Structures
1.
Amino acid sequence: MSRFATFHPFARVLHWLMALMILTMLFVGAGMVSTVETKHDWLLAIHKPLGVTIFVLALIRLGFRLTHRPPPLPADMPAWQKLAAHGSHWLLYALMISLPLVGWGMLSAGNYPVTLGGGLLLPPILPADPVLFAWLREAHRYLAWLFFLTFLLHMGAALMHGLIRRDGVLQSMTGTREPD
Amino acid sequence: MAQEPAKTSGPPAHAGWRWALIGLAVAGVAAAFGYVGGWLAPHRLTPSRLVDTLQASGGEHPGFRRNHAKGVCVAGRFESNGALARYSAATLFAAGATTSVVGRLAIPGGNPYAPDSSVPIRSFALRFDLPDGEQWRTGMNAMPLFPVSTPQAFYEMQLATRPDPATGKPDPARAKAFFTSHPETAAFLGWIKKAKPSASYATETYRSINAFYLRDAGGQRHAVRWMVVPEQPPEGDGGPAAGDTDYLAADLSKRLAAGPLRWHLQMVLAAPGDPVDDATRAWPDGRQMVDAGTLVIDGTQPQADGPCRDVNYDPTILPRGIEVSGDPLLAARSAAYADSYLRRTSEEAHVPGTARPGEDKR
């Protein structure tokens, strides 16, 4: 018997799968633009298909989230923490969807073929335009930074719930049961 | 089953250690990210450091490429004869296929105002636009091999040969020390000592230098290097007039006014044992060659408003049927070209913190 309400199992699976993918993605992105070694090539080859996968999963997850109520936050949580929790969650959703789109748009504006490996090719979503490319490339960088910082905040807050407050918020996503 | 109201029962035991654990987890992930991204690894050779050294040698010329800054756009097509189709599944090699090409002829170096005679090397970059949206980009040079085989050695060579701020010329002692400690440069140095700047782009043979793999329809791969060999015969002695520093573009326009220029795309197939990851080692003569078809160039435009201006000729952008080899220079070219491309497009876009095109510092 769980002491606390948990997220739907599908939501939990998506959460942990995407957490792994997104963290991988952020590290792959930071690594590939900071190296001139051959790993630049294979990191880039991972980055694009992984980004598309995250984008598709994020849309599915958003649809599920909008149709399934998540467990409520503890009633005794301070209002500012609740606001921060909700705000950061919606920010994470926005970034999961916008970062891949900015990346795709940026490659389109740079007139690069958007190759996903195995001969898969995505069509351009923007006209070739170097000025647009530069702005989107910068946006991709700073949005990724924002994503990483939001992730750190999210992880720190989750651990705070699990280790300090011990209010079941972390367990609502891990699905672990409290010992009797 | 009923949900109990969540309650927090005061501070947990060992609260200090628990906070420390949280802090450690967050700081640990942040530090790992900082290391991977290079901010906590200051000695790593990053694309940005590599391009900084090129910029230091060539001067600041906002809006221009950081290397091969001086050049012209050309346009034309590639007419495949089908001979390469058995080695590569790339659709542009099918018999009778015609693929449009946006190209660029240039000279090495970061100064867009350098005299054409300042280097004895010319380069030819091509982007083949395949009908299905795939692209093949290649940057070739009119030289038989590359001076160094790794990005690290390339970086050190830039540092050793860049102009001394005091004299405006490279320090011969530093350059000598570099080349002595890098014996792989000997073959290139032997070549360049005898090389003379050509009077025309049209008469040069341009080579991929780096090796690649072709992948055939059956999945077999074949190590290759390629070159485009001109149909135009070499010039006689009549070189450019003394004092003319921009003769290459003028020569090209004059020739194109008289008709298209043609090169043959020759694929050189490696024999077993030939190095496919070392651009300092040429393959012996007599390797099997396949003439894949004809590159026809029929137009030229200044690069300032030509279609090649906004193309990053990243040699790792390849269609199905062509793949990168293990040559470490290829990834470095891809990474550095991307950095150079972002710098010059950011300057075009007036991104804050970038120099404006036109504010050149020579």
Note: Chain B is about 25% helix and 20% strand.
2.
Amino acid sequence: MNKLTVSKLVLFTIAGLLSAVSAAAQTGPFQFFAVPPCRVVDTRNPTSTNGGPIMGNNSQRDFAVRGNCGVPTSAKAVSLNVTITGATTTSFLTLWPSGGARPVVSTINFTQSDPALANGAIVGLSTNASDLSVFNSGGNVHVILDVTGYFQ
Amino acid sequence: MRQTRAWLRRIAVTCVLAAAFCLPLAAATVSKLNDDVLAPLRGPAVARRILLNNVPLYEHGTAKIELEEFEVWAPGGKVIVNDGKSVQYLDPPPMRFFRGQVNGDPESFAYFSVDGKTGGIYGMVATRDGKFSVTAARRHLTPRDRNPDNVRGDEFDYFLTASDESDEMPMTGKSFECGVERLPALPQVNKRILTEVDASGHPIVAQGITGTQSFAMTVEVETDDELFAAAGNSISNVTALVTNLTGAVSTIYNRDLHTNVVQQNVHVYSGGPGTDPWTASDIFNGLAELGNNYHTNHLALKRSAVIMLSGKNTLSGVAWEGTIGEGDQASSVNSISTFSGAYAWCGSIGDLQGAFTTTVPDPDATTNGTQFGMPTGGNNYWPLEEYAHELGHNMAGHHTHCVAITSGEAAGTNHPSQLFIDMCHTGEIEQTPPSTACATGADFSSAPTEKGTIMSYCHNVFSGAVPQSRCTFGQASEVRQHELDDYMLRAAGPLAPFGGGFNIVTAVGSFTMSTITASSSVTANSTGNTASVTTTNGGTPTFSWTITGGTITSATNTNSITYTAGASGNVVLRATAFKNGTNGSGFPNGSVGITDTKTVTIVTCVAPGISTQPQSVAVPTGTGVTLSVGATGTPLNFQWFIGASGNTTTPIGGATAASVNVSPSSTTTYWVRVSNSCGTVDSAAATVTVQPIAAASFFLLSPCRVLDTRGGPPVPANGVMNLVVTGKCGVATGATSVAVNVTVVSPAVAGLVTLYPGPANTIKPIVSTINYTAGRTLANNARLTIGVDGSINIFNASGTPLDFLIDVAGYFK
């Protein structure tokens, strides 16, 4: 039952990625590069590009993945684990390459009763300095992104 | 040159305490001592400190006297009795000795002794206002009491009798004999002394009189048959007299000079006239006879000084000055050929009026009864002052009144200073520039300006009935204290190491010892450890070693020893070096010792060995890894290095444990040196190979469960499980990542799991793969980076073991 649910989420996420980029010229195929697991974003840290503050209600943050955690600037997509904690209400996050319109997808859904919750994802990266956008639907929530590889 | 200077110092011979004649005994103030005083003195032997209340020192009141018990006899001291036919060695009489001060009077001293056999009490108390001695009168006399050796102390009443100080004789018409007091320039002498320091830079001689160090000197006490006769032909009487004098002298020396005076042997001649070897009839020949006798017969006898307490009616004494610690040597002064040294000759100890006028106590007396254990009567302080005075000369104290430094100064010119300690007559008043060398008899006609000290003649300056002397070398409160500091040599070192010698380093010049060298740490119980000590600056010292925490196995009397350490802890090595005086006579009193101590820490030590070599490992770029070594031995010290084994060029800072975390950016070789005081061993090198990140394609697999801990051990609480994934479920060897779904099964508590690449010793990164709450089975998908060895690590960050599933969907290669 659980496996089935997760599989759907994976498929849903990949579909979202494909949907987000479908408006642009499709690229690829890409090769995968595994990197040692590395925490690239943690909004519990002091305020910075990839740190705090906590994400607010109906808000968007743009993070810089390329150039960190061994992900080169030539990377086109990243394999990561999205973890939320400290949520104040039921909400969801959307991750997509920054600079484009926010796609109608969700990457992780959660409630305030979850102390912490994670989901794996593959998300495209734009060529902007801040290459990955995160949208929080409602309430406040901390976002943690751990990279395990990239595509290029 | 040296001989000449030494000879000059010995010119400082004469210090005649002239008591020209005796005055009739004046009426004395007498107070009976009650049990407030007697009972504490006779109290239990455990009372090392006692307080005497209600001591009747004053006409309209009493005083309190605080006393501490002390020793007057040196260990092993004897009463050596020669009756002309044989020599007996008697143990000292069982006496207890107390010294102290009158409360509120820093110039005072108080001395008491208690005869442990008879209960008899002796004592002397001097205050700023007067001097007192303990006298006794027997209540009832029986025939057996006619023998003075049968006295019982509790048959007596005891009185405190005030001295009228009639011993302070006039010197009208006499001079201070400046002409013969040609002394070396003592300020210069003392300056030389004061600048001598030990290896640590601390003065080793000439301590200030206000210093806290205390010293000890041992005196050999000689008497003659005249004194024996004056003491009622009683061995116990003369022994008690001499011992009490030494005790009172020691009390004063301790108070003023921080020096204890103890007597080694007391020589008594009991066979009547002619029993003793002392034939001289004047003070100079008496001193020469004493010096020659001891040089001939007792050169090896360890002592600081030899004091002759004579019963001959010379009314004066004489001593060599500044000779304690120098040993004796031939000299010729005033046409007397003799051996100078630490010799002092005190005459008239037993022949002054009032001291021994009665050989048997008067049964009817209620006051002024004679007690043979202490000089009594009006002159009772004369023997004490004479003893203290002449011994003070041995200690290099010279007269504190007018003193000529050189013959030219004696002629009245070129005094370096006229800041005399004493100002008991007008001739001593400071004059700037100096113009008067010495007082003459004419100066004594006027009233003195102040009392003199023990080292002065001021007590001989008579002016009416005014007391003229004090039993003091000077008090710290006096303006001229610094001068007094310069006057009296200080003795360095305790008594014990020198067997009775008086350790004045000036006698042998500079003598320093370097620090003992020894192994800083040694193997417990091993033999062959060595320590050595070296001295510098001349002479051929002898050495003495002691060791605590180990055993000396050879060569204890040289400057180097071999020792075996104890099992653990510290070994304390103590070396004492002795060197004889510069005169080279081998006279023990001239020896000086310097002691140095070193503590060696004993380490229980087993040579190190390597049981497990650090292992080479390959890791992905950006991955830290822990290298470890297994080692045997005790104790173990580690130091990790970069490079080939044995190459110590590049140590890793702080890497001093059995394992080290490294995160090389490129392939690097490491090794570790394991060492302790017993040995050193180097590990083999271990290479951390850094694998570049390789491009990989995705290979799809049929879903496959590669881990299910429900059939085996769970992931341990707060622990790591290493899992090889390549070769399982179709994951190809060389895969760099695996696409998985991970599931936590009914976790007992909330927690998280971190999945990271192998090998097992890879340093865990601060990331998470799945977070979960208690009781909720939950899944997540992930791409797990695989270690170079094909494994992943599963870390369970929770306090309980965790059941965990990993399902593979594909891999990247």
Note: Residues 1-25 of chain A have pLDDT under 50 and may be disordered.
